[in-house]
Write a structure and sequence with these properties.
Elements (H helix, E strand, L loop, with lengths): L4 H6 L1 E5 L7 H13 L3 E3 L11 H10 L3 E5 L14 H15 L8 E6 L18 E2 L4 H12 L11 H22 L8 H19 L1
Parallel strand pairs: 1-2, 1-3, 3-4, 4-5
Helix pairs in contact: 2-5, 2-7, 3-4, 5-6
Length: about 210
């Protein structure tokens, strides 16, 4: 991938997704699919600086990415806790950047996910009429949604089917514990940049073998 600023923007995908433990299987599968398709997965976890303003970090990330994957599945009712609205808020910032930004920001593209196709109408009716994709809390369905969205894009480096991506992801997950043992860490300890690095290395190996 080129180091030019413009190409980084054209291939960067902002991940506006939950980070809780229950969501990790979906999150990791999405990250793998994005990278496997030749794009760069980016999210707030890539920079860990306590002195950095979180909102400014989000603004910077959104400004740096042409694409955005926004999962609204954690905006849900709880018997005790209030719903989490970080993801809908960040989706609004992404849309605002596309609507009121200039130049390349007007070309931003979004994939909106939820656990059920029309559930979002219970809490954000302004999205009515948009093509929201449902992953049904299934990582494989999330991979299929990402592939259908990013795969046909002209910026792709190589075209892959969803089933092939999923098989590669399963092999990667099976190999990851052994790779981590070599570094003396557990898979659960991996930071986001470390996880992405492992995915990049796995992708490079796959394409080297294919070549």
């Amino acid at each position: 991938m080129s180091d030019s600023k413009e190409l980084r923007y054209e291939n960067s995908v902002f991940l506006n997704c939950p980070f809780d433990d229950d969501y990790q299987p979906i999150f990791r599968a999405i990250v793998f699919a994005v990278q496997d398709l030749g794009f760069a997965a980016r999210c707030a976890l890539e920079r860990d600086d306590s002195a950095e303003n979180r909102l400014q970090k989000l603004y910077d990330l959104i400004a740096a990415c042409k694409y955005g994957i926004h999962d609204l599945s954690r905006a849900e009712r709880h018997s005790v806790n209030l719903p989490r609205f970080n993801m809908p808020f960040e989706l609004g910032v992404f849309f605002g950047c596309r609507q009121y930004g200039t130049g390349r920001h007007r070309q931003k593209v979004a994939l909106i996910l939820d656990s059920e196709k029309y559930r979002y109408l219970e809490f954000i009716t302004d999205l009515r009429g948009m093509d929201i994709k449902s992953h049904q809390d299934d990582p494989q369905k999330a991979v299929r949604a990402v592939r259908s969205w990013l795969g046909p894009s002209p910026e792709r480096i190589r075209h892959h089917g969803a089933d092939a991506i999923w098989r590669r992801y399963q092999r990667f997950e099976n190999d990851l514990p052994a790779l981590c043992r070599k570094r003396g860490v557990a898979p659960a300890e991996l930071t986001f940049p470390e996880f992405v690095l492992h995915v990049q290395q796995a992708r490079a190996t796959i394409h080297h073998r294919a070549g």
